Amino acid sequence: xxxxxxxxxxxxxxxxxxxxxxxxxxxxxxxxxxxxxxxxxxxxxxxxxxxxxxxxxxxxxxxxxxxxxxxxxxxxxxxxxxxxxxxxxxxxxxxxxxxxxxxxxxxxxxxxxxxxxxxxxxxxxxxxxxxxxxxxxxxxxxxxxxxxxxxxxxxxxxxxxxxxxxxxxxxxxxxxxxxxxxxxxxxxxxxxxxxxxxxxxxxxxxxxxxxxxxxxxxxxxxxxxxxxxxxxxxxxxxxxxxxxxxxxxxxxxxxxxxxxxxxxxxxxxxxxxxxxxxxxxxxxxxxxxxxxxxxxxxxxxxxxxxxx
Length: 308
Ligand SMILES: NC(=O)c1ccc[n+]([C@@H]2O[C@H](COP(=O)([O-])OP(=O)(O)OC[C@H]3O[C@@H](n4cnc5c(N)ncnc54)[C@H](O)[C@@H]3O)[C@@H](O)[C@H]2O)c1
Ligand SMILES: O=C(O)C[C@H](O)C(=O)O
Fold this sequence. Notes:
Layout: E1 2-6, H1 10-22, E2 27-32, H2 37-46, H3 49-52, E3 57-62, E4 73-76, H4 92-109, E5 114-117, H5 122-132, E6 140-142, H6 145-160, E7 167-168, E8 171-173, E9 180-182, E10 188-189, E11 192-193, H7 200-211, H8 213-221, H9 227-241, E12 246-255, E13 261-272, E14 275-279, H10 286-303
Parallel strand pairs: 1-2, 1-4, 2-3, 4-5, 5-6
Antiparallel strand pairs: 7-10, 8-9, 10-11, 12-13, 13-14
Helix pairs in contact: 1-9, 4-5, 5-10, 6-7, 6-9
Bound molecules: nicotinamide-adenine-dinucleotide and (2S)-2-hydroxybutanedioic acid.
């Protein structure tokens, strides 16, 4: 399995590191536009190999896409991150141009690859890749829900004073401060609904803390987060590499599923060797459906700002 990661910044390097540490890929190519940067990150990471016990070969490239040729999976993390006080949507002008060019360059050398889109505003960037490439929809996957769900579980565990491994939960909808839909009704502690353990008010707080998870970290760090984003991408790449057929909420192009069309939005999907193997349509209650519709309206409004 060969994986290329474009953007050797905070998220790209973290993603490469987690992929290597999990030791399922033979090769990871890091590519960045900044001279020498990806080569430096790759060398630094390779010098952890004997310490961390992995055999994955990590190499770096300054904008030479021939090095990414025949990648099974490509990850797009290139672009600018937000600063405190900004929304992800404010990144659209700069990142749309970068994502469009990067996707096209990657596909020149790896026409059959599976593309994972990370750059923000992620649902709109995923939609842009759909509209500007010929890749089938199962091969374009937006990463947001896996990260948001990990943050949801962190907040649930905190509220329940439980180990994170005891809780389960999922966030669907748009990857934005207002568009996320944490499915509190379906969250469980060891198969028991979390509402058995905490009050409705505390559960509402968990939901709100989850939705602003990225903004909270951006305020603390001065730029957006990278460890959990990198781990989330690596889990998705592993699911493809090992044909795990795991369910992750991912941004995918909807053609009627969940009553939506012509939009990329976070819904549960099965991830395996073909990328998105299937979209899982779960039964939502009316309140959840309404929140999903509002979330989709928010993403569509941002999509409308794209100039293809
Ligand atoms: N979807 C998610 O859940 C999620 C999570 C975290 C970050 N993000 C997004 O990922 C992106 C990257 O975040 P980061 O913290 O790694 O930023 P960063 O600034 O640390 O890294 C971005 C890298 O992209 C490179 N780059 C810019 N233009 C390029 C081009 N045309 N070709 C190749 N490389 C190019 C830059 O040189 C830089 O090294 C941001 O848009 C951020 O908002 C998304
Ligand atoms: O919050 C951000 O801007 C980056 C990313 O989308 C995240 O959720 O960490």
